[in-house]
Design brief:
rod-shaped; two-stranded antiparallel sheet; about 15% strand; alpha+beta; 4 strands
Length: about 60
């Protein structure tokens, strides 16, 4: 069985871990009401709809 001869440096260890976090970014869907991007299975932050019904009242920002 292969065994490492030397301990990996902090830099190499951190670079490997940093890349793994990039792989788990949330996927975005398009809201059927307002066509804004949102995280699936969550309320749309732009219009407040979830499963084709109004859940939150969203105030217009000016």
């Amino acid at each position: 069985m292969g065994v490492p001869k030397r301990k990996p440096s902090h830099s190499r260890q951190r670079m490997r871990r940093a890349y793994n976090s990039v792989l788990s970014l949330p996927q975005l869907s398009t809201c059927p009401q307002c066509a804004a991007p949102y995280v699936p299975h969550r309320v749309c932050p732009a219009c407040g709809f979830y499963k084709n019904r109004q859940v939150l009242t969203v105030e217009a920002t000016a």
